[in-house]
């Protein structure tokens, strides 16, 4: 099992270091890019084709666009731009298709690892990608290392606090999320009335909450109040990529689903746009709590 993360200082870059930002969807790539720029290390941005969503902002940095199936080009891009470090940030909605990989000399070296990674779940694929980068001589940093202030802290972060019934729901959702995480399926679960009722799949947290919203009139859940969303790292999580995260949109979706609050794993989850996320939760009466390594 992966050891608990400890909060550390931001990395100390040397004058010759250069950081590549592999940018997927969502706000996180922008926050990471801005943080790196403030540290004097404006990134070279690699926009993942069809995935990166904040392109107007990210194109303000030196950049290129790359399809996932063009991984064989990465080594030459790193070498041409003197890349020493890389950060993977943002969502990816699909997995690369092996038969669409573009034939390049650089692909020959990594194809066995990529094939093995594609045979597993998302966490295994990301861990494989980290190893590939290291093989190129590039050190992978987690977004939380560049911005440790994004990490969720332990305890209640909002004016609203969990009620006794919410504690049972938090326990149930935590157990369910850890179970599917062990299978490398997802990172989140919804519990209502003391039992898990929805598990995160390939549709992500937004899809999970949309399904939970539709359950309010279903069978034994009809008339049930409150309920929670829990997001936590997978037991063998590759901590430098794809840490569970929430943001303002998560709070909106939780409220729309009629849930009372959100539990996130402290020190192993990210809170994006944290000031707005907490402020929105306070306006809507949604609680946010950071859970310890035992889910309490």
Kindly report the oligomeric state of this protein. Answer: single chain
What Rg is obtained from the alpha carbons, in whole angstroms? 20 Å
Could you say how many structural domains there are in total? 2
Which structural category do the helix and sheet elements fall into?
Answer: alpha/beta
Which CATH top level class of the largest domain fits?
Answer: Alpha Beta
Relevant CATH superfamily of the largest domain:
LpxI C-terminal catalytic domain
- Poorly predicted runs are 1-6, 115-120
Strand order of the biggest β-sheet: 6-13-11-9-7-8
**Strand and helix order:** EHEHEHEHHEHEHEEHEEHEEHE
CATH fold node name of the largest domain: Cytidine Deaminase, domain 2
Percent of residues in β-strands? 15-25%
Q: Give the termini separation.
A: 19 Å
Based on DSSP secondary structure assignment, what is the total number of beta strands? Answer: 13
Characterize the largest beta sheet: strand count, sense, and whether it forms a barrel: 6 strands, mixed
Q: Report the total helices.
A: 10
SSE layout:
Blueprint: E1 19-23, H1 28-38, E2 44-48, H2 55-58, E3 63-66, H3 74-80, E4 85-89, H4 105-118, H5 122-135, E5 139-141, H6 143-146, E6 155-156, H7 164-182, E7 188-192, E8 195-199, H8 204-214, E9 228-231, E10 245-246, H9 248-256, E11 261-265, E12 270-271, H10 274-284, E13 287-291
Parallel strand pairs: 1-2, 1-4, 2-3, 4-5, 9-11, 10-12, 11-13
Antiparallel strand pairs: 6-13, 7-8, 7-9
